[in-house]
Write a structure and sequence with these properties.
It is found in: Nucleus. The structure is a single chain. It contains five helices and no strands. It is an all-alpha fold and 119 residues long.
């Protein structure tokens, strides 16, 4: 029997809200990196990277446009949830009509859907 997975690291467990507050505090000059990291419970190196990005991408007067999205890994979703549900319903509909799709057919279908969405 498979045991329940226990996560061994706390990487990426900070909240977007606390990171945004920490970045604003550093950009406005209220705190340094170390103090803001400890106060808002965010990693200092990540905070430094987010502040650097905020300073490069926005004018000094506006600190409200700060992007601090948490994402681990290089993969991003291709389809929206609605498009994915539409694809699933199509596959299930084909299954009820006794026209089973192979994995190769499913991959081609998903690729064509993605290609048509781009163009």
């Amino acid at each position: 029997m498979v045991k329940k997975y226990k996560r061994k690291t706390n990487r990426g467990e900070w909240s977007e809200e606390s990171m945004k507050k920490a970045v604003e505090a550093v950009v406005e000059g209220k705190m340094g990196y170390m103090l803001a990291g400890k106060t808002f419970s965010v990693p200092q190196t990540t905070l430094e990277r987010k502040v650097k990005g905020a300073r490069e991408n926005s004018p000094p007067s506006s600190s409200t446009n700060i992007k601090v999205k948490v994402s681990l890994g290089p993969k991003q979703p291709v389809f929206t949830e609605e498009e994915e549900n539409e694809l699933c319903s199509y596959i299930l509909d084909m299954e009820t009509r006794l026209y089973g799709l192979t994995t190769k057919d499913l991959k081609a279908l998903a690729y064509n859907l993605f290609y048509n969405l781009i163009n």
